[in-house]
Amino acid sequence: MAEDAPKIIVDDDWKSQAQAEKAKLAEEDAKSKAQGPDSGPGGLPDKLTFDDLIKMLATQALMYLGAFPDPQTGKAMIALDMAKLHIDMLGLIQDKTKGNLSDDEKSMLDGTTHELRLQFTEIVKALEKAQAEGKLDPQTGAVDLGGGPPPTP
After folding, report:
1. Does any domain span residue 6?
2. CA–CA distance, 69 with 78 (Å, rounded to integer)
3. Which is higher by pLDDT, 41 or 66?
4. What is the pLDDT at residue 133?
5. C-alpha count within 13 angstroms, C-beta hemisphere, residue 90
6. Is residue 3, in this structure, part of any structural domain at all?
7. Best exposed site among 25, 70, 92, 139 by fewest CB in 10 Å?
8. Cα–Cα distance for residue pair 51/53, rounded to 1 Å
């Protein structure tokens, strides 16, 4: 009857495989935590959200409205046509997503678009005023805001 009893075979190899896999997962987890939450390769988010899209378009519009200096020159750049394009894209998103957004998403989109439109209008008025006062160099687009010598032609 001893011959009919099942034999128990202990395989110690699985323990080392499980430990190696556990160490590998812990290492990957540490890397992802170092990159930030929900980060993929290169520190970019694995999953983009609607808010990310709105923030990206708003940042581009602000850049073209002169809110951020050009990394190459260190000077603010104003390109009204490009700023208007990004603001118009936000308006298009508003139109096409009507009734399909959460309250938070709608509030963010409406507020962002409204603020950018106000800033755009203020900058256009300021540039028109500078041009009327002769403070805008038509060739370079430089604006003399006072405190220094006037722009040279």
Report:
1. no
2. 10
3. 66
4. 86
5. 30
6. no
7. 139
8. 5
